[in-house]
Specification:
Length: 418
């Protein structure tokens, strides 16, 4: 089975959620009380970005509306409440947790301000590469404006990553009155043959997960960042540049593989044997883990004076949590050049998170329980800025290119020639 590997792969890997019991207004109200009380009790600093008065008013307003709302709409409003804290580690992530949710068979991804159909089942492959203009005649810019408040995040990169995972769910769009209740979801798409509006027949989670996907740019010679996505860490030697490319997908030990620490030691033995001059650490698809796993990487880099000015770290919209901390440490301690997009984590904020489940719906709520400043000089900045900004386009992805790594290698070649 060819699963979507980006950006929808986490949904496909997640477990579909089912309520532990049949839900009623009374049970939803009890869950709301648990959500509001436990979130405020457990979160280490819930009112940094929203006032207590504003949050409690939103809770009271939702409590009064529960009897008139559908189950899906209640879940959407629960997500909105949690997102009010504006904390990327504190969320009720509806694409994973939603009870009874369905999903469009046309999966999309954002490139600049546009959304393109990125993956389809084989029978809908003709729509691959088309651009989404509107849903039920509402312009996509307005759709995303209405959906954005449901998404918990530290900065705008979270929206770049997550909006496309929400706007493919008809229950979310119905709750926001984007798709009128009792009507079908209709997408207006534009491609080489012009503009056309089609009816979307949504899939349940099980069917979605069993689909044999056709993916834009799914070439046999895919660029490095799209290879070996199931591996937490691997490397390749780029002999033309005397560079080791290290793809670091998860700050965690992988079952059945060498530990990160052992792998890192072996990587640098290889680095020294090849007399490599450059190290490229690609964190674009690393959503975190435990940043202590990266300490051996930092240690090995600091041992090698020849890497001063020759360390490049790639970050992007998926880079999060422990991966962002890794990028910060390599920047601050080893003078790394940051290339790509900013990560979706604040430099100073959440250090750890835990979760609890609502008693009746079984919805999971994540929350921050520890804070730490990793780059104090940036204060309350929402992002860690990159030194060289570059992103892939839909055209480059479809052609099997990686504009980000190409830009990195241009930098390596230019500085090596000096």
């Amino acid at each position: 089975m060819n699963q979507i590997i980006w950006p929808f792969f986490l949904i496909l890997a997640a477990c579909s959620n089912e309520a532990s019991e049949s839900m009623t207004s009374q049970k939803w109200t009890a869950d709301l009380d648990t959500l509001s009380s436990q979130l405020l009790k457990r979160h280490i600093e819930p009112f940094k970005y929203v006032s207590q008065v504003e949050f409690e008013a939103a809770v009271q307003k939702l409590r009064s509306r529960i009897p008139e709302l559908s189950d899906a709409a209640i879940q959407v409003e629960f997500g909105r409440l949690v997102a009010m804290l504006k904390d990327g580690h504190t969320e009720l992530w509806l694409p994973r947790e939603g009870i009874g949710f369905h999903y469009s068979p046309l999966q999309i991804d954002q490139f600049e301000d546009d959304y393109f159909v990125y993956a389809t089942p084989p029978d809908l492959e003709s729509w691959l590469g088309t651009r989404l203009l509107a849903i039920n005649q509402m312009p996509i810019s307005e759709v995303t404006r209405l959906v954005a408040p449901l998404i918990a995040g530290d900065n705008m990169m979270e929206l770049c990553l997550s909006l496309q995972e929400y706007i493919v769910i008809p229950e979310v769009l119905e709750a926001l009155n984007i798709v009128p209740e009792g009507t079908k979801m209709q997408w207006t798409l534009v491609g080489p043959d012009g503009e056309k509006t089609i009816e979307i027949v949504p899939l349940d989670w099980e069917t979605l997960n069993e689909t044999n996907w056709k993916i834009a740019g799914d070439h046999t010679d895919a660029p490095f960042y799209r290879q070996k996505r199931s591996k937490y860490y691997w490397y390749e030697y780029l002999s033309d540049y005397q560079a080791v490319y290290f793809k670091y997908n998860r700050c965690a030990n992988q079952d059945g593989e060498k530990s990160v620490k052992r792998f890192t030691k072996d990587l640098f033995k290889f680095f020294d044997k090849q007399d490599a001059q450059w190290l490229i650490v690609d964190l674009r698809n690393n959503r975190g883990g435990n940043y202590n796993r990266s300490k051996q990487l930092e240690k090995e880099i600091r041992k090698r004076a020849n890497l001063d000015g020759k360390l490049i770290v790639i970050t992007g919209r998926e880079t999060f949590s422990a991966a962002t901390v890794t990028a910060i440490h390599l920047k601050v301690k080893s003078n790394a050049l940051l290339v790509g997009e900013p990560s979706r984590s604040r430099p100073n904020g959440a250090e750890n998170y835990e979760w609890f489940f609502l008693p009746h719906s079984n919805l999971r709520v994540d929350y921050t329980n520890r804070l730490k400043d990793h780059m104090p000089e940036l204060g309350d900045s929402p992002t860690v800025p990159v030194d060289i900004a570059v992103v892939n386009t839909f055209e480059s992805v479809s052609a099997g290119r990686d504009l980000v790594l190409e830009r990195v290698l241009e930098e390596v070649a230019k500085k090596s020639a000096l």
